């Protein structure tokens, strides 16, 4: 059992390589076309405001489907859902590539396909993470989360420049590349063998039973004052951060910044995150989680200060470095604590409730950036959003439930 294998590489844990492969290729599929989607939203619409609304509408679609997604994940076999997710996404991106290659991709079709992918994301994206606790067990979850943060950074670091390069060679290539990655994820998921989940076998059919499970899961989450404190703080923080990130992207796109330079921001961010991941893997079991979370939030808030004074490329790079270095440790502490203490049969619903609530804050960030950026100017917009970030940091520092979370070896001793 994974729970008993506390030493050695995670890749020696049965089923972890197959899980890691499926999760990684799904991420690769998203990373390759990410920069292209950002460019196409602006190019097909011809408007910064429309591009901003496009990202918000995608976020809203993800939120709507994610509300029921967690319950869906908890009631069904995780391997089957991973196969469905990778297969559907592969078909969608292949269709996008074919339409683009034949010159038939209109903004309306582009939005329809992107919204479809967002719906799949909201409904099924929690599957892989819900399966992880079954594969590695709660004791190694923080370690796995640290590894995931470094992996995510490496994929995004390579994915954006690769997507921009492929786009320069042939406009449809990034979408076909994404389809291939999703196909490889399908293969890895096919070889994943998870223990049969009793709760999935006993799931009662019918809409009423489904809604009952949904309500029960969300009630469990809302009953945890620690989770709700974290969600409120992170929601406010993410709203400000997402809005500033969208503002940076829109500012670079509208000012005619070369797509390769835009993608290099992700490379720099990825390198910083990789370095942070190495540090996190050594510290995640030692550092006092509550104090570490507060300190990291402060450091990340400071990382956006250079953007007040300049939107020039060096300021964007400096921001990427400062905000990316502490992210792996932050993810290991926050996600590690919450999800290592969440029962397997509530993993999907807990993640759904947490992510949906946070995304409710973040989903409006694109529209806010698109509407207010032309009115306030870049520096004024950053100041406004950074004020919200500072409020969230103060709330975290003053909240005893967050501040008193111990180091991971003592998580079993405290209540969620």
Can you tell me the CATH class?
Mainly Alpha
- Output the structural class: mainly alpha
Uncertain spans: none
**Roughly how much helix do the residues carry, as a percent range?**
over 70%
The major sheet is characterized as: none
What is the correct CATH architecture? Up-down Bundle
- CATH fold assignment: Growth Hormone, Chain: A
For the secondary structure, the number of strands is 0
Element-by-element helix/strand order: HHHHHHHHHHHHHHHHHH
Mean pLDDT across the residues is 85
Overall, the morphology is globular
Number of helices: 18
In oligomeric terms, what are we looking at?
single chain
Based on CA atoms alone, the radius of gyration comes out at 21 Å
Q: For the terminal residues, how far apart are their CA atoms?
A: 25 Å
Count up the domains.
1
Determine the CATH superfamily.
Answer: MFS general substrate transporter like domains
Approximately what portion of the residues adopt beta-strand conformation?
Answer: under 5%
């Amino acid at each position: 059992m994974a729970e008993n294998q506390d030493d050695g590489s995670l890749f020696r844990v049965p089923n972890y390589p197959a899980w890691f492969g499926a999760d990684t290729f799904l991420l690769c599929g998203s990373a390759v076309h990410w920069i292209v989607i950002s460019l196409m939203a602006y190019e097909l619409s011809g408007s910064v405001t429309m591009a901003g609304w496009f990202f918000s509408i995608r976020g809203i679609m993800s939120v709507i489907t994610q509300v029921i997604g967690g319950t869906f994940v908890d009631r069904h076999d995780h391997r089957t859902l991973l196969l469905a997710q990778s297969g559907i996404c592969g078909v969608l991106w292949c269709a996008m590539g074919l339409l683009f290659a034949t010159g038939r991709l209109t903004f309306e079709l582009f939005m329809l396909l992107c919204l479809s992918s967002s719906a799949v994301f909201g409904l099924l994206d929690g599957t892989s993470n819900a399966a992880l606790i079954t594969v590695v067990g709660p004791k190694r979850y923080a370690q796995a989360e640290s590894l995931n943060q470094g992996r995510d950074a490496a994929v995004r670091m390579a994915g954006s420049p690769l997507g921009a390069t492929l786009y320069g060679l042939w406009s449809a290539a990034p979408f076909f590349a994404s389809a291939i990655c999703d196909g490889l994820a399908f293969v890895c998921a096919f070889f994943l063998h998870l223990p049969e989940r009793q709760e999935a076998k006993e799931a009662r059919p019918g809409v009423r039973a489904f809604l009952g499970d949904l309500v029960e899961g969300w009630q469990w989450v809302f009953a945890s004052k620690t989770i709700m404190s974290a969600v409120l703080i992170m929601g406010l923080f993410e709203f400000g951060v997402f809005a500033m990130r969208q503002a940076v992207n829109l500012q670079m796109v509208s000012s005619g910044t070369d797509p390769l330079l835009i993608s290099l921001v992700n490379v720099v961010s990825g390198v910083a995150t990789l370095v942070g991941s190495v540090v996190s893997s050594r510290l995640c079991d030692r550092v006092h989680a509550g104090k570490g979370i507060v300190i990291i939030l402060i450091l990340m808030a400071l990382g956006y200060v250079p953007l007040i004074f300049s939107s020039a490329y060096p300021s964007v790079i400096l921001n990427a470095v400062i905000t990316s270095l502490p992210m792996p440790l932050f993810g290991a502490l926050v996600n590690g604590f919450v999800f290592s203490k969440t029962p397997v049969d509530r993993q999907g619903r807990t993640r759904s409730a947490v992510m949906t609530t946070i995304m409710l804050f973040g989903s409006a960030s694109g529209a806010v950036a698109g509407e207010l950026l032309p009115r306030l100017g870049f520096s004024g917009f950053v100041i406004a959003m950074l004020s919200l970030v500072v409020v969230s940091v103060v709330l975290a520092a003053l909240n005893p439930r967050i501040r008193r979370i111990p180091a991971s070896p003592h998580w079993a001793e405290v209540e969620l």
